[in-house]
């Protein structure tokens, strides 16, 4: 776990990214660093799984049908959150910090950190609960809460970046990126931090390392908790009293919406448009899918920040150029291999329709392919930043885009033959197979991945040939053309096979889904 | 059993649209459908009755290409739904017993999507979807996701999806459960008119009054076999029931379930 940070520039940035300046403004020993890293590792892993599941946890039936008081709801909600999995990321982080402090010879500070952690979690959950009530009060719409959750997540990540990257103790290391802005911001932070320490979120932990001023900060933290408790209770009471009014408002606003007509653009005439559109709506409306999309789109930008230090240019560029596109195929994997499994909701609409089956796959593939191409864009930006030439980047795209296409084609086939969801995330894709069977399916998919890489070998050879023999424009164009045609032909063959075998497999697929429901 | 009609007696001399011949389906040793023989002609409003577990839904699933028969054959429009699945599916509409809708679409989007799957152009699909939303009384819920709909609203959308391409043959498996009386009346009227204009409707339900009122011919299934098939009058005659006997009387006599007033007497004592 210690390797997460290490001493590389990338690791240094990553560590800085997660550093709470006011909490960790001390120099830990080697053992302390290890403990700190463990805490951060736990935080990273758990936050990745749980981070976006914040908010929206309100149960309306509890408000209107149970004979309970607002205070009881507030306390039980708070206890449930404190005992729930959402507690794990901050707990992991603070425990890591506490161990690190103990190992660095600061036992008092370690104990204070634990106390600060309890206060921080208490306040954070109170904020979340109050936010839930406000959101629910504003508009009873799941979509609204989801969108707000996403915006909140983005703001949180932004706060992380600002607080640690710009104002961190290692801020001077970022001078190359923020030549003029950096010192000014650091200077501003120096004068304003005593006010910033009083804010919710900072106050519960800032008192640990701020000397006598800590008492003021601690008082602020306790007052904030009290205010949140009172606000939560008031909001809840108001929500219980005006619940019916909110419901009426919602009905009225829904009334305005129907009757809208969208003009039929040329895209709608595409033979595979229905599934492309349906899949797009699903992607943007499914929280888990949105999470995947967000991670995929934001992830590379974080990598850009992490790898943006000078010095390791050649090595990191090489790793990024080959490693990242292959890494992104892993994002494509769950979508490609679960294409039929993800149709479970409306499987009858699909299997009872007379639509030629290639259109089903082409529609879904088109969207996922665009998604894949989109996540390659940040990598390209990074490669340009690293000074990689346009020709080389063209070779990369000519290799990696057809590779994605082949991956999708093979995914179609695999999802027909194994319509079992094996991605352990999200309600729609949760596997309901015995562990042994699931393991076998995963092994088969791994074997399939290996087979895909064998089929894709000519693309990688083409890229290699381009880099070595494609200096002149004509041979370069020929290599690119060859790679694109190869990818398209292989995809076409796989699509044709999938389209042919799908109708005969449909009764079996339907039976599998029905049994799963039982 | 009391009365098993022959094809000549019951097919009304109209074109056969559906034909089951010795249709059998086994599930792990359990015979759900047992050598079923039945034909349904064009323009018929055909009632398909039976107690729970009689094999009605299994029969419909075999007719629409969702389940392969263990033996025997199905012909729909003279075609085997497993040999020419897309050709058969293009001509039929199905409201299945289990709802299966893309719940992250809005009601209107689901209807348009369904229309497009059946080959309607975007403009026609959108127009028909809007009409159906209004007809089904769902115009206010047009922009809500199906996942937020009630069961009855979902049934309405399923019905809309089955109707949007104007199929020549409709399979309805318990289509009206949870649908409000106002919408039900509208739907019954339209289905009646569709049948009068030549659409064949294969209708499975437990609501006897509805079947009695709507269907021109009825089959009663029990333990996977057709026990009775014909018009209500034919059934009354065959079972020697009075002329005012209801379909419920016919059903009870056909299936032969004794009514025991002593059962669960604690409920009424």
Give the secondary structure arrangement, pairings included.
The complex is a heterodimer of chains A (518) and B (269).
Chain A: H1 9-17, H2 30-50, H3 60-65, H4 70-83, H5 88-103, H6 107-138, H7 142-166, H8 181-196, H9 203-206, H10 213-241, H11 243-256, H12 273-285, H13 287-306, H14 313-337, H15 347-351, H16 357-385, H17 390-417, H18 435-455, H19 457-469, H20 473-517
Chain B: H1 7-10, E1 16-27, E2 30-41, E3 45-49, H2 56-63, E4 71-76, H3 85-91, E5 92-95, H4 107-117, H5 122-135, H6 151-163, E6 169-173, H7 181-196, E7 200-204, H8 208-214, E8 217-222, E9 225-230, H9 232-238, H10 247-255
Concise account of the structure shown:
The complex is a heterodimer of chains A (518) and B (269). Chain A has 518 residues and is mostly helical.
Describe the structure using short key phrases:
heterodimer; A: 518 residues; mainly alpha; 0% strand; B: 269 residues; alpha/beta; 3-stranded antiparallel sheet; 10 helices; 9 strands; globular
Compute the gyration radius of chain B: what is it? 19 Å
Shape summary of chain B: globular
Poorly predicted runs of 5 or more residues of chain A = 1-24, 49-56, 163-178, 244-261, 424-430
Q: Give the biggest beta sheet of chain A.
A: none
**Oligomeric state:** heterodimer
Describe this structure in words.
The complex is a heterodimer of chains A (518) and B (269). Chain A is an all-alpha fold and 518 residues long. Chain A is 74% helix and 0% strand. Chain A contains 20 helices and no strands. In chain A, α12 (273-285) crosses α13 (287-306) and α14 runs antiparallel to α16. The radius of gyration of chain A is 27 Å and the shape is globular. The longest helix of chain B has 16 residues, at 181-196. Mean pLDDT of chain B is 86; it is low at 1-13. Chain B has helices spanning 7-10, 56-63, 85-91, 107-117, 122-135, 151-163, 181-196, 208-214, 232-238, 247-255, and strands at 16-27, 30-41, 45-49, 71-76, 92-95, 169-173, 200-204, 217-222, 225-230. In chain B, the strands form 2 sheets. Chain B has a 6-stranded mixed sheet, with helices on both faces. Chain B has a 3-stranded antiparallel sheet with strand order 2-1-4, with helices on one face. Chain B is α/β, with parallel strands linked by helices. In chain B, α7 (181-196) links the parallel β6 and β7. The A-B interface holds A 142-143, 251, 254-255, 257-262, 264, 268-269, 273-274, 277-278, 281-282, 285-286, 345-356, 503-504, 506-507, 510-511, 514, 517 and B 64-68, 82, 85-87, 89-90, 92, 94, 96, 98, 100-105, 108-110, 113-114, 116-119, 121-123, 126, 130, 133, 139-145, 148, 161.
